[in-house]
Write a structure and sequence with these properties.
Number of helices: 2
Shape: globular
Largest sheet: 4 strands, antiparallel
Structural class: alpha+beta
Length: about 100
């Protein structure tokens, strides 16, 4: 995606859980609630992975493509609704990614 997303300060348990769930997605499994939920407000095939940590809830917004799992953002969930700035950033990242794929 022409950039990187730094890993948040997950606990070891939460880091393993996030890694395992992303591995399952890469292997073609579809996760459902409570692990993951669709995020059509970001785009088609976009979802929100839910990671519970000892002291915080984390979210990983991703899109399932035929050949990849695109991680769009990772953030601490502090409010009921996903912040609009996160949604907009994810949409922009997807638009840049999709435009670069069309050029190739």
């Amino acid at each position: 995606m022409h950039g990187c997303i730094s890993s948040p300060p997950f606990s070891d348990k939460a880091r393993r859980e996030a890694g395992y769930r992303l591995f399952l997605l890469q292997c073609g499994e579809l996760l459902t609630m409570p692990e993951s939920r669709p995020m059509p407000s970001v785009g088609s095939r976009c979802h929100e992975l839910r990671i519970r940590d000892a002291w915080m809830s984390w979210r990983v917004i991703y899109r399932l493509d035929a050949d990849a799992v695109l991680v769009l953002d990772v953030f601490a969930k502090t409010t009921r609704a996903t912040p609009m700035r996160i949604l907009e950033a994810c949409r922009k990242r997807l638009a840049r990614h999709d435009a670069s794929q069309e050029e190739d």
